[in-house]
Amino acid sequence: MTGSTLFSIEKTTNFERSFKKLVKTYKSKSKKQEFIRVISEHLEKLIINPYPQSERHEPLPKGIELPDECQFYKLVLNIAKGASGKIRLMYLVWDKKRVINPFWIYNHQQFEKRPPDREIKDVIQETFEGKSIGRENTKNQIVA
């Protein structure tokens, strides 16, 4: 994507909430810091390329439609062994606006496949209503 405009990250309140909950699953300070670092790196990579090979186009919950310029994805991150190391990041990509809305991050222990459709639908609707908590596009601001 050389020469193209970078995307920016607009985190949602649900992303922040789910991220904090996930960080708490790490007992030691060093494990928490490592987890934050790894997730920050993955979000920074999304700014350059919101369509990495490990992402997959995610089916929408019934009863919701996205605008044509918006797509729904789930990124699968295997950052450690075991169920707690299988991290999933759900996000929306707005190509025309060059914006990525991460709205849910969870591990395999929290949801074996994905959160309930009703909850995903509610969070996507909140994102449409502009309930994001801030735009980030520089290193170390993405997750912190």
Task: Write up what this structure looks like.
With 144 residues, this protein is an alpha+beta fold. The chain has a single domain (8-130), classed as YaeB-like fold (2-Layer Sandwich), CATH 3.30.2310.20. Helix content is 30%, strand content 28%. It contains three helices and six strands; from the N terminus they run βααββββαβ. It has helices spanning 13-23, 29-48, 117-128; strands spanning 8-12, 55-57, 70-78, 86-94, 99-107, 132-136. The chain has a six-stranded mixed β-sheet. A hairpin with a 7-residue loop joins strand 3 (70-78) and strand 4 (86-94). The chain is globular. Mean pLDDT is 82; it is low at 134-141.
Summarize the structure.
By secondary structure, the chain is an alpha+beta fold. The protein has helices at residues 13-23, 29-48, 117-128, and strands at residues 8-12, 55-57, 70-78, 86-94, 99-107, 132-136. The chain has a single domain (8-130), classed as YaeB-like fold (2-Layer Sandwich), CATH 3.30.2310.
